[in-house]
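Two records follow; treat each independently.
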Amino acid sequence: IGEEVKPFTPEKTKEIVMSLQQPAVFCNMVGDWPALHWNAKYLSAVLGGKTIQFRLGLKTVDLDPQFETRCNYVKATLEEFLAWCCGQPSCLSGPFSCYEYSKYWAYADYKYIARIFEDKPEIFQDIRWSDFGFPGRSGKESTLWIGSEGANTPCHLDSYGCNLVLQVQGRKRWHLFPPGDTSCLYPTRIPYEESSIFSKVNVANPDLKRFPEFRNTTAHVVTLSPGQVLLVPRHWWHYVESIDPITVSINSWIELDADHEARVEEAITRLLVCAIKSADDPSDGDLWLNPTEVEATSHEINLQYLNKAVSAYFKCHKAGVSEQARPGS
């Protein structure tokens, strides 16, 4: 039959991605991507004995979100993870031995593909965001997520960019809320992570006594299946859960001009959080920082972040203004 014709050209797809204010699912766009074969078994063979960090959470649903600060962590190979998921007796010892599969889920989330496969750069080309109008964007600018059933990310919004997510194995359910619902989602910066604003509400089991305004939100629920790509527009809140025994997805954040302003806000937030935290009782400091943030940065470094962000913002702002300026204005 020859090459499968994609519903949109790269140019048209980019136009949709950059202008759409609603989430959308793209179908039949990635049929020829080698990355569609990246199931957990294949990745396990590629990675060999390399260990990656898994976050473990309880399958029982509490009224509070399971923030990453409340999870357990193990380093394990994908082979060990798969054996644990399949209930193999070999798991009586090893990294997952303390965690009963019926009670826990495991998630290798937010893994930079460039870092995991730094010794196999040829694998980056399996991911072709050029079909979405972003030439040169590959696995190098993408992130990998591998989870067991029940694995989830607390509801949050990303400060920067919009998000393209390819589902490779299993299905994931996305609960998406528009930026207009922000106040009803009770945003918080604790745990602090640069670029993530969390919701205090456990979307899967909301405490309506504590968070009555949550009733006024409108969730857009999407079940993403293998071969589909989800667009999460800028500042849309999302809670994501794995609903099959094993899920694999790949995402890439697309930078936007509006990010320059967001970087200034984020730099100020970092400055404040670290200043307050250093003045606080250091014993409970671990609950402040999301595990993705290695440590509280010094005042000096935070000022550098702020300085860079402000400079980039004004540079971008000036460029925009000079484009608009007409002779004689």
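The next record belongs to a different protein.
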Amino acid sequence: SSQVALRIRPMSEAELAEGARPIAHRVDRQVVVLRDPMEDPDDVLRANHSREKSYIFDMAFDSTATQETVYRATTQDLVTVVTSGCNATVFTYGPTGCGKTYTMLGTDGEPGLCTRAMGELFRAIEDSSGDVEYKVSMSYLEIYNETVRDLLNPSLGCLQLREDASGTVQVAGITEVSAINADEVMQLLARGNGRRTQEPTAANRSSSRSHAVLRVTVHQRRRGGGLRHGHLLMIDLAGSERAAQTQNRGQRMKEGAHINRSLLALGNCIQALSHRASAKHVNYRDSKLTRLLKDSLGGNSHTVMIAHISPASTAFKESRSTLIFAHRAKSICTTV
């Protein structure tokens, strides 16, 4: 099953200083409305032509939604999915500076989805009955300019993707670390995050220029035999904006081209997987990102995408393309 949520962050001080107005609003639990700031409200001829467009999602959050609210609505159920031996994926999507990393990692005072999910996972393992033995391991990688880097051990250099006999895409030689509690996972994450490729852009001081993929595997061994494992993938995508918005030149521009190429490939896979698609072929091989997400998008995984936008009138084009992308993702049918 796949679900798409949308989160609108609060207006930033920079946006308010520019004189931006809020044009994106959450109308109810599922509907977000975006108004085109260019159309003149006093234009009588266009009065009937609605300047507002509604987009419907599985869940919508505005700036009043807490990290806890977003976690409970989007990710909490996935912990049970993984401890019962299935796969689950959460990914954050949207332009730079719209709160993707905040949702995923949060701050010390307002922890994000990763911290909360890990806490819940280890609590569930502690509370489980004694006839199942659990082991949790994790890997953390980034995809930057179409190369895969191990964030837990960057000295490994560029890693290759391999497909095993069952069709699952593996990262050859990646570090798998066992973890015994949530704090340990968060320390490893913090260390890996410090190694993540970040550069200042006009849109964000510490913009993530790479896609980061945390993979947590829960191995279960039942007394008297059976082995099972479930994966939880938590993915913080790089910003989806156009170059003009970040005023990128040179190296930043080249990174942007790679980021956009992988997000375009993701969009194409989503398009091909959606209800209305007549084509049966889904081209996962167009980018490293879509190859890694193959199981999450079309295979046996519960998938949640959380798209992020800014409510500001100055971000209208970015917000519109994010809403369209996320809306399209809503019509994916995964087969669990």
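Discussion point: The two ends are 6 Å apart (CA to CA). How would you locate this feature using only the token line?
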